[in-house]
Amino acid sequence: METVGILGGTGPAGKGVALRMASAGYDVVLGSRDSNRALEAAASFNVPLKGAITGASNEIASACDLVVVATPWDSAVATVTALGDQLAGKIVISMVNALTREGREVLPVYPPRGSMAAQLAFALPRSEIVGAFHHLPAAQMQDLDSGLDADVLVFSDHPDAIVRVVGIVDAMPGLRAVAAGSMSLASAIEAFTAVCVTVNIRHKAHSYVKLAGLDK
Questions:
Q1: Which structural domain, as residue segments, surrounds residue 175?
Q2: Any domain includes 208
């Protein structure tokens, strides 16, 4: 089974992905700029899992077979640029959303290349960037008994990497992967996260994306 490193994995979104990956049998390394914080986050999981969750520095997490970027959007490029050599030749999953809050609404921020996935692809030309995990409610991701039944849109300019990530997502409890298309969809998919979060704020809910009409 592949090992998965999560850069910036100590936040709610990263921990949710880690929990469900470990539930599927993957050994996950939660990375952080502060390794002590990562160790504390890993120790906070108190449910039986098929795989293991450990904490370490981002540098150690980047040595895993596959790497997920879960850092705040405004530090994502700097984080991966410093780890470019370690990430070369690997699939790097971007779950980064560039968002800002104004009152009770969350709005998308459009980086120079149109999306955070495109920004990471430019920063990591030797890696295969795949976008996934953008529209998931962190609280429900961290609760295996929440009844979550969400779709995860997966996009990339690397078809084989899409297939590999789809297989990983489909193995995670409560999630179904939907291969969406190429990196040209990144901006629209990431920006829709702002709609999801705003709806949840307005309705005090934990809604998520579920696509009807698919044969899968």
A1: 3-203
A2: no
Is the pTM above the cut of 0.90?
yes
Residue 83's pLDDT band, with cuts at 50, 70 and 90, is: very high
The answer to the question of residue 213 being in a domain is no
Strand runs (DSSP E) across the chain, as ranges?
3-7, 27-32, 53-57, 66-69, 91-94, 99-102, 105-108, 128-131, 150-156, 175-181
Q: What is the CATH number of the domain that holds 146?
A: 3.40.50.720
Separation CA 62–CA 151 (nearest Å): 26
Is residue 214 domain-resident? Answer: no
* Residue count of the chain: 216
Total domain count for the chain?
1
Q: In this structure, is residue 215 part of a structural domain?
A: no
| Residue 89, SS3 per DSSP | coil
pLDDT digits (tens, 9 = 90+) for 192-208: 999 999 999 999 999 99
Helix segments in the chain, DSSP class H: 12-23, 35-43, 58-61, 73-82, 84-87, 116-123, 138-141, 159-171, 186-203
Report the candidate in 4, 69, 3, 2 with the shortest Cα–Cα distance to residue 32.
69
Q: What is the pLDDT of residues 85-130, one digit of tens each?
A: 999 999 999 999 999 999 999 999 999 999 999 999 999 999 999 9
Q: Give the whole-angstrom CA distance, residue 165 versus residue 154.
A: 8
Q: Which amino acid is at 41?
A: A
